[in-house]
Write a structure and sequence with these properties.
- The chain is an all-beta fold.
- It has no helices and six strands.
- It has a six-stranded antiparallel β-barrel with strand order 1-2-3-6-5-4.
- β2 and β3 form a beta hairpin.
- The protein is flat, with a radius of gyration of 16 Å.
- 15% of the residues are buried.
Amino acid sequence: MVTVGQLRHRLVFVKDVKTSDGEGGYTTTKTTDFSLWGSLVQLSASQSIRAGQDVGYNNYECWVIYQSDKIPTLQHVISCNGKTFTINGINEIEDKNRWFRLSLTRN
């Protein structure tokens, strides 16, 4: 658990939005859904070679305060300081909807 003073990263939650292209198809664009202050802590890092490509993964833990109009989902991607994070898991901490703990991957 973190304290409010540790929420020092501005996290922008981005999602894909489909818009009609006028010809029966859709175009997908990324749109900022909302932003929250949160903590961002790197937990681990790994590196491997797959299909001749050097691939690295960084796992992070993120804490944000619950706000009824700003609920993170697995469809969101988080942007922070020029880095992009994929949400892998969301845990609601405490029964009173006070905190969300997010499991993130940066690749």
